[in-house]
Amino acid sequence: xxxxxxxxxxxxxxxxxxxxxxxxxxxxxxxxxxxxxxxxxxxxxxxxxxxxxxxxxxxxxxxxxxxxxxxxxxxxxxxxx
Length: 81
Ligand code: SF4
Ligand code: SF4
What we know:
The chain is an alpha+beta fold and 81 residues long. It contains two helices and four strands. The strands form two sheets. Strands 1-4 form a two-stranded antiparallel sheet. The chain has a two-stranded antiparallel ribbon with strand order 2-3. It is globular.
């Protein structure tokens, strides 16, 4: 794919990823969903794990910090580091 100036604003993956193998939403955990101030995360009941429902992240980090199993990974964009 040719590189355009717009590439810098595009992401191939969501900024917040949840490791479904570590996530214990199937045991009733909703910590990351509860702490996100923007309500971006949700539980996929069928899969028994959390996922990013809306891609509007503020990179405030409590979802990653408060997850009891370390399943949440927030990818802070290069431009905000
Ligand atoms: S970093 Fe903040 S805004 Fe982004 S998903 Fe986590 S809690 Fe929500
Ligand atoms: S806080 Fe962690 S274990 Fe709990 S639902 Fe979210 S990703 Fe899953």
